[in-house]
């Protein structure tokens, strides 16, 4: 069945439900309800259309990557016939046609007489096409994971890593044997690039973050597409460094939008609506980590764990000190510039003493332990665990931020997150 036929079938399947509801609304003479329903039908149809179009283009790229240009031409010819406003597909179609009679030197190899008029748009389409092709040709090493993921608890079912320089988001499943790459998607990032530092700089932040909520698309403008997943920017390290801004989300696209340049957002991470819907179905609020790096460093899982061995020793020593009941011994693990929700180390220490009086020197267990490493100008560990005293059934879920100072690891933040 052709894409248009699929679209028509999907639209017809949606319409009866909406008009059935509208009939009951007529009794209340609610014109507004009917208007909203028609708007919803239109948006769902457009979302289906955009999803089918992008899926078709991905298949064209796969065929080109394998050198099957003749099959790719037939596929893209049908694609532009079905979706004539799909500019990127039109660009690829033109290149494949041109390749039949002459060498194609660059993506979007249009005559120089046409180049000037559409230079900006052509440049954006070329960049998007290059990123998509690159992702198909240059794959991560088999079995490798981003170096930031040192150890994830089995309670963390999925993890996300973003390579901003490649406009790519990678989705991992965390199973008994560790992380497995299950999907990757084209994304757009900030118009001014990445490494966000101030409000309004149109950059995407770099660091280790967590999904904080799942916003209902009904509460959002059409601009955000199928939904939105906010992350905790600025995180503790960002705040420590004086970074500002807020409202960094993973979100979808307006209904019917086919193409997006790699640098196109105000700082958010933007995916196609079908891709975002897959992400929404897998993530867990406050649990799923999102690593955003300029360039991901892929390593073997055993190598990642061995890289974190020195830190594991420091964490075990902290756990032992906490179990001993000796407050001064525990405080030695905290940096002098420690800050927990506005409290300095001296202001926070009484809370630590009160906490340790309750445990009375009982063994402390770290349940569902996860730790990830962020390395730039400093070496930082983001640690999450449930702290449970021996004999207790439950305990608080805590998050710590550690920094390496010379040969030692020190805690500069600790707080309860659940």
Features of the shown structure:
418 residues, 12 helices, Nuclear Transport Factor 2, Chain: A, five-stranded mixed β-sheet, five-stranded antiparallel β-sheet, disordered N terminus, L,D-transpeptidase catalytic domain-like, 19 strands, alpha+beta
Please provide a written account of the structure:
It is a single chain. This protein is α+β, with helices and mostly antiparallel strands and 418 residues long. The protein has helices at residues 3-26, 31-65, 69-82, 87-98, 112-115, 119-137, 236-240, 273-282, 301-307, 309-324, 327-331, 345-359; strands at 145-146, 149-151, 158-163, 168-175, 178-186, 189-190, 207-210, 228-230, 249-251, 263-265, 269-270, 289-293, 298-299, 339-340, 343-344, 364-375, 379-389, 397-405, 408-416. It has 3 domains: 3-137, no CATH class; 145-301, L,D-transpeptidase catalytic domain-like (Beta Barrel); 308-416, Nuclear Transport Factor 2, Chain: A (Roll). It is built from 12 helices and 19 strands. The protein is elongated, with a radius of gyration of 26 Å. Residues 1-22 and 31-51 have low confidence and may be disordered.
């Amino acid at each position: 069945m052709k894409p248009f036929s699929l679209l028509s079938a999907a639209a017809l399947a949606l319409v009866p439900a909406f008009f059935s509801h509208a009939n009951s609304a007529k009794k209340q003479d609610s014109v507004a309800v009917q208007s909203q329903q028609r708007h919803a039908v239109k948006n769902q149809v457009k979302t289906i259309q955009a999803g089918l179009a992008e899926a078709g283009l991905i298949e064209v790229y796969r065929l080109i990557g394998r050198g099957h240009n003749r099959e790719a031409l037939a596929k893209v010819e049908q694609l532009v016939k079905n979706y004539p406003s799909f500019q990127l597909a039109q660009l690829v179609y033109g290149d494949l046609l041109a390749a039949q009679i002459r060498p194609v030197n660059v993506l979007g190899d249009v005559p120089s007489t046409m180049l000037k008029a559409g230079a900006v748009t052509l440049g954006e389409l070329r960049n998007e096409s290059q990123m998509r092709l690159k992702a198909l040709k240059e794959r991560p090493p088999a079995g490798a994971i981003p170096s930031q993921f040192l150890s994830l608890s089995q309670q963390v079912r999925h993890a996300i890593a973003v390579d901003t320089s490649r406009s790519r988001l990678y989705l991992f499943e965390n199973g008994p044997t560790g992380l497995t790459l299950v999907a990757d998607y084209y994304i757009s990032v900030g118009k001014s690039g990445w490494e966000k530092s101030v409000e309004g700089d149109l950059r995407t932040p770099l660091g280790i973050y967590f999904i904080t909520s799942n916003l209902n698309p009904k509460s959002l403008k059409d601009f955000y597409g199928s939904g939105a997943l906010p992350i905790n920017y600025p995180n503790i390290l960002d705040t420590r460094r004086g970074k500002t801004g807020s409202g960094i989300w993973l979100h979808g696209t307006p209904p019917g939008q086919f193409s997006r340049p790699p640098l196109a957002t105000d700082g958010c991470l933007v995916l196609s609506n079908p891709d975002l819907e897959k992400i929404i179905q897998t993530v867990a609020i406050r649990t799923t980590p999102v690593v955003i790096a300029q360039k991901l460093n892929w390593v073997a899982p055993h190598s990642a764990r061995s890289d974190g061995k020195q830190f594991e020793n420091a964490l075990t020593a902290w756990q032992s000190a906490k179990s001993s009941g000796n407050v001064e011994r525990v405080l030695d693990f905290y940096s002098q510039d420690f800050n927990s929700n506005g409290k300095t180390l001296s202001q926070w220490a009484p809370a630590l003493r009160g906490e340790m009086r309750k445990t009375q020197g009982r063994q402390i267990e770290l349940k569902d332990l996860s730790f990830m490493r962020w390395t730039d100008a400093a070496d930082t560990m983001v640690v999450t665990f449930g702290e449970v005293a021996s004999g207790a059934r439950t305990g608080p879920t805590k998050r710590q931020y550690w920094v390496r100072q010379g040969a030692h690891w020190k805690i500069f933040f600790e707080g309860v997150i659940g």
